[in-house]
Design goal:
about 220 residues, two-stranded antiparallel ribbon, 11 strands
Length: about 220
């Protein structure tokens, strides 16, 4: 996962300046959660829960949220929003086949070992359980993409590679502060298939060029 010290150092900025109002949805994260997670009951594990900003919506959909994250600084803000545990996402302190749903929201680029994280999510899911992934769009967001013009994206070489970078078109985001892992879209999708999950639905958010890409995958019953 990304260095916990790095996220610890920006946790207050992330909470107070980066996230915006909790009901804002400029890049479609809330819409994707509503569509792909949807109403349900039982525990929903958020892997990489950060400050716990998504817990209220998960709860509003009928689920009982709980979260794990590696950053003490981020978890300090999450405390009170949902039950939390400090843990490496590759070794979640949850037994096999224990939860009906899990989500990862805007965190896969923080996790160089994301394939291991998805396999761990598959382990803790019940048969028939769902994993919802919402992340930056691999084809349009990354060190190779210049989004300075809100009406267009300039794509430079780099999309086809897998690499960690702090290169960014803006100093107002996360990548330039803590770095991000890029994987092209086919590699990301194979992550779910290699974990034994079945891909069910997809979503894109943001305009006029997508910023987020979301997946719902299911553990076979």
């Amino acid at each position: 996962m990304a260095r916990p010290a790095a996220y610890d150092s920006i946790a207050d900025w992330y909470e107070t300046e980066f996230l915006g109002e909790p009901d804002d949805d400029p890049i479609g994260i809330r819409r994707a959660l509503a569509s792909l997670l949807g109403p349900g009951s039982g525990r929903c594990l958020e892997i990489g829960c950060g400050t716990g900003t998504h817990a209220r919506q998960v709860r509003s959909l009928g689920w009982t949220p709980l979260g794990v994250d590696l950053s003490v600084g981020m978890l300090r803000h999450a405390r009170g929003r949902l039950p939390i545990a400090r843990a490496d996402a590759r070794r979640i302190p949850v037994r096999d086949n224990a939860v009906p749903a899990a989500i990862t929201v805007m965190v896969h680029t923080d996790m160089p070992d994301y394939p291991d994280v998805v396999r761990e999510a598959a382990r803790v899911l019940r048969p028939g359980g769902i994993l919802v992934h919402i992340g930056v769009h691999p084809a349009f967001c990354g060190g190779f993409a210049d989004r300075a013009d809100s009406a267009a994206v300039v794509i430079r070489p780099g999309y086809l590679d897998t690499y960690w970078t702090q290169e960014s078109w803006t100093d107002q985001g996360v990548r330039d502060k803590v770095g991000a892992m890029h994987r092209p879209l086919p590699e990301l999708l194979h992550t779910f298939l290699d974990a034994g999950l079945v891909l069910e639905r997809f979503d894109e958010g943001g305009s006029p060029v997508p910023i987020t890409f979301a997946v719902r995958a299911r553990k076979p019953a």
